Amino acid sequence: MIDLSGVVLGPLAGRPEASWQQAPRGKWTSAQIVEHLALALEMSAKTFASRRDKEPMMRRGTTLRERVGKVFTFGLGRFPPGLKAPERTTPPAQVDGRTAEAHFRNALAAWDAVERDLLPARRNDLFVKHPRLGDLTLEEWARFHVVHSRHHARQIRARLGA
Predict the structure, then answer these.
(1) In a domain, 153, yes or no
(2) Could you list the pLDDT tens digit for every one of the 162 residues in the chain?
């Protein structure tokens, strides 16, 4: 996976806490975005780790909505418009930038450990359901996290005027 810490945290490096807290009215701050990304990484890493010893799995069929989502996400590197974050990855109303940064770095480390432990042995027979894309392999989740992080990094740069 690419260096997501650089993609996400690079624009915020050396910035004061006030920069982490800037956002248009009704939108997440940069700190909340980083926390959201940490929650998503952490959740998928924990789920894969919890399934490490499961028997080989078979991918369930996908719905039309999931197939369209995969075209946007994996084909175009974008998200379909109008999506809201799942509740489990919604950040709290207030989050400190340094706390979000530490959580994000820890979640990246957990994700890296899962990749190290499960690839290549479980490449094609271990799945975790994404709420909008259906069952994904570990490598598909890694691709999702890259697209997801780049999407939110654009928002962070816009908040910073960078």
Answers:
(1) yes
(2) 789 999 999 999 999 999 999 999 999 999 999 999 999 999 999 999 999 999 999 999 999 999 999 999 999 999 877 788 999 999 999 999 999 999 999 999 999 999 999 999 999 999 999 999 999 999 999 999 999 999 999 999 999 997
Cα–Cα dist 9/153, whole Å = 8
Reference 30, options 86, 73, 91; nearest CA is 91
The total number of structural domains in the chain stands at 1
Residue 129 DSSP one-character state: E
Answer yes or no: is 110 within a domain: yes
Residue 130's DSSP bridge partners are: 134
Nearest alpha carbon to residue 158 among 29, 6, 71, 13: 29
pTM for the model stands at 0.95
Instruction: Name the residue range of residue 153's domain.
Output: 27-51+64-160
Residue 34 forms part of a structural domain? yes
147 closest CA partner among 49, 80, 90 = 80
Contacts of 121 (CB under 8 A, 6+ apart): none
What are the start-end ranges of the H helices in the chain?
4-9, 17-20, 30-50, 64-70, 97-118, 138-160
